[in-house]
Amino acid sequence: MRIKAIISYNGASYYGFQTQNRDDMNSIQDEIEKVLSKIFNRKIDIAASGRTDRGVHALGQVIHFDVDEESVDLYKLRYSINCMLPKDISFKEMKVVNDEFHSRFSAKSKTYRYIINTNERNVILDKLVYNFSRKLDIDKIKEGMNLFLGEHSFISFCTNNEGDYIRNIYSFTLEEKDGYLIFEIAGNGFRRYMVRMIIGTLIEIGLGNVSLEEIKEIIETKENRRVRYKAPSEGLYLVNVNYGGEEYDQN
Amino acid sequence: MRIKAIISYNGASYYGFQTQNRDDMNSIQDEIEKVLSKIFNRKIDIAASGRTDRGVHALGQVIHFDVDEESVDLYKLRYSINCMLPKDISFKEMKVVNDEFHSRFSAKSKTYRYIINTNERNVILDKLVYNFSRKLDIDKIKEGMNLFLGEHSFISFCTNNEGDYIRNIYSFTLEEKDGYLIFEIAGNGFRRYMVRMIIGTLIEIGLGNVSLEEIKEIIETKENRRVRYKAPSEGLYLVNVNYGGEEYDQN
Q1: What gap in Å lies between CA B7 and CA B72, rounded to an integer?
Q2: What is the pLDDT of residues B7-58, one digit of tens each?
Q3: How far apart are CA A8 and CA B126, in angstroms?
Q4: Chain A (214-243) residues lying within 8 Å, Cβ to Cβ, of chain B
Q5: Alpha carbon of B90 to those of B25, B41, B96, B120: distances in Å?
Q6: 0.95 cut: is pTM over it?
Q7: Chain B residue at shortest CA distance from A8
Q8: Which of B10, B125, B126 sits opposite A123 (nearest CB)?
Q9: How would you classify the pairing of strands A236-242 and B2-9?
Q10: Cα-Cα-Cα-Cα dihedral sign, residues A175, A176, A182, A183
Q11: Contact (CB<8Å) B120/A90
């Protein structure tokens, strides 16, 4: 039986989602697998929609795992899991899905949020927002956001790994609230560091350090001209992962 | 020359405000004295309006310290201090005051905030609110709050130290917002654990575990009948310390 779970975590105290297979580098995956393995009394491995890096948070990360049981009381299971997990990780929803479902390969789109505080440093939100107390040109930033919309090669906006750099950005919004900038970006997928490098680039645009034309050219050439800007992890949230309709529902 | 500073900190990573004089137990005071001593090139001791316990936050804690210099550029000083401090401690305001001012003894009143999340556990705010996902009787809690208003002996609502237990609570408000309860309590002073024990008592009232009459009696008898309830530190914020008018201004 395959179980899908939507989980939330505060990434401040972890070396990222993925296990590092090291006792001195704790991960969200380690914590969850430890709890599930204890509950089911055998080693349970989980798969996620994708890793999140050290310090990155999640409101709606999705994982799946398989159990041998023929039926499980998901309400009780979720309660037990949440009691045993550290206080900064939580299972929000659980659902039985059919074997076609895979948290990573079935994902149709993802949404990330990035929060910048342009006011004086807010120490209370130290690890939850990027404290960047500088004046930014919001109009320029909004023009910059438009450059990323649609299908592009993001080869210059991620770390240099093999594979396919083409991604489609479906929406990219910015809400301003009391000096906080709240970006939301949705697309069919994101390469490692891609959101943080896009946000980092927008900050440089907002500071006037780089022109819209320059960024437009970097995007359009499709050559690897990796930008040097990467916003820090603490402002980044994986908001949700979308899997389309009901095709994975268990009958 | 005496300098007054208003500071803010996220207490999640510290063993409280006050120095523990131990290398393995960091404190806000240690961090600040380390930075000031480096800047002024001699040992600088600070005094605060009062200690805050492990895990408690401050939006407007007040400290003072003395320097030998005859004039100091406070703008530059604050900038240097904030660059050198850890990211979860910040100097918000600085001001030269006369020698009559003492951050602790001149304080006229203090305001604390306490935040309870009654929704499902919010892991993002893990160390910033008290996640308490239970249904509370808000009307009963409001009646309970009224019992504490005015001058009372708080001998049953603090740890058992020597001294005077009489305190005057000037105001006590509760704002409800999307399942979050935000208490603000102002008074001429608070004994150790007093706010947390008052909030803990209100939670028990809200759960129906203890009656208003019982609490009223405990307050009125003025005997030591210490309540067993103490809300955890993570929901508590020292909001500000009030010193009255301009009588400490440097001429």
Answers
A1: 18
A2: 999 999 999 999 988 888 999 999 999 999 999 999 999 999 999 999 999 9
A3: 11
A4: 237
A5: 20, 20, 18, 31
A6: no
A7: B123
A8: B10
A9: unpaired
A10: positive
A11: yes
